[in-house]
Amino acid sequence: MSKFPIAKLEDWYRQHYFTTEIDISGSGVEDFSLKEVRELAGISHAELDSLVMRDSRTLGDPVLRQSIANRYADAHAERVMITNGSSEAIFLLMKALLSPGDELVILDPHYHSYFNIALTIGCRISRWPLRFEDGFVPMLSELERVLSPQTKMVIVNFPHNPTGASLSQSEQRRLVDMVAAHGAYLIWDMAFEHLIYGPDKLIELNGSYQRVIAVRTLSKAYGLPGIRVGWCIAPPEVFEECIRVRDFTVLFMSPLVELIAEKVIDAEERFVRRRFEQASRNLGYVTRWLETLGNRVEYVKPNGGVTVFPRFLGVRNVDAFCTELLAKHNVLLCPGSCFERSEFVRLGFGCSSSNLETGLNRLSAFLLDRE
User: Fold this and answer.
1) I need a surface site. Which of 100, 125, 128, 162 has the fewest CB within 10 A?
2) DSSP string for 166-224
């Protein structure tokens, strides 16, 4: 198979994101303006003016790679590759490491890239299900059931999008050990690492297993999706394969976004702390709102990220429900069909608190109108 299937999530946002007044569907925090970025990261006009728009390096600017390595890779810059968001990192890794017939394990519900890229390669796909009946708790016994001697790669994104599920630190270590026992690659999408509300933060993966690969991005917890900067931390020999794919796609990054990314990474705490505090307040607000709905909704409170994945009881067609909400109240939700869970919706609470309050008030009115 060579053609890519339709990415329903991207189609949904292409049609509605830029024309909707209130978005309470997204998986990222409130976006920062360039002015805010310059002030928080301490970027001067002189630094921007002196930048020469030359080509960049295939693996990324050495200064940016070192800044990331100092924080996430025990200072080993050779283990860092800069990518156009985490999406390119996932694409490169899967294209570089997987072959037709290889077995891949993904979480379910899943982000469309994990499934569809593997599908176009010709992989066999096994699903590690997260069930509402289990509180979306990731059951390692279920992972054990789908792992096999033929498993080539396991992809996880904890905290999980869209459910907000995560693992305790002991479970995280067991996950690594389980994948290592099969000699498979473990790709861990850590986009929501800085948006965890309980005590179980993500464990340090460096040195835990030779084939574990961490993927991160500035798009989610940092509030910078438009800059399109991500990175992966992997053994250098993995990048030799990724380069062969990249040479036929984007080639390298923009030196402008690499400069901004370097300054943001160096001032990381200023960005993630501000948005984490906002997300924490918003989580409290959306939880109280869900409780007011009583038996009209079922949901699981997320452990991380900025999305909750509820289902509204009595709603038979969620796609039509979300479309009607748009038409009548100009509020955007994401139908669960974008994640192959058609009875749910993705409700995002990373936006500004005022937008969240307005959006939920309009959604309440819409629900009452339907009764």
Assistant:
1) 100
2) ---HHHHHHHHHHHHHTT-EEEEE-TTTT-B-SS-PPPP-TTT-TTEEEEEESSSTTS-
Final residue belonging to a domain, choices 221, 251, 267: 267
Tokens coding 265: 């990474």
Q: Hey, what amino acid is at 224?
A: L
Mark whether 63 and 150 lie in a shared domain.
yes
The helix-helix angle for 62-72 and 255-266 (nearest 10°) equals: 30
- Are the C-beta atoms of residues 88 and 239 closer than 8 Å to each other? no
User: Does position 340 have pLDDT exceeding 90, yes or no?
Assistant: yes
| Cβ-contact 222, 271 below 8 angstroms | yes
How many CB atoms are located within 10 Å of the residue 324 CB? 14
> What Rg do the C-alpha atoms of the chain give, in angstroms?
20
In a domain, 310, yes or no: yes
- Domain CATH number, residue 22: 3.90.1150.10
At residue 61, the pLDDT reads 97
Question: Which DSSP symbol is given to 84?
Answer: S
Threshold 0.85, pTM exceeds: yes
Tokens at residue 19, please?
Answer: 């024309």
Is the pLDDT confidence value at 169 over 60?
yes
Query: Side chain identity at 309, as an amino acid letter?
Result: F
In this structure, are 262 and 277 located in the same domain? no
Number of residues that make up the chain: 371
- Asked whether residue 166 falls in the same domain as residue 22, the answer is no
* pLDDT tens-place string over residues 258-298: 999 999 999 999 999 999 999 999 999 999 999 999 999 99
Question: What is the rounded CA–CA span in Å between residue 83 and residue 88?
Answer: 6
Residue ranges of alpha helices (H) inside the chain are: 8-16, 34-41, 45-49, 62-72, 85-97, 112-121, 140-146, 169-181, 236-246, 255-266, 268-292, 318-329, 353-369
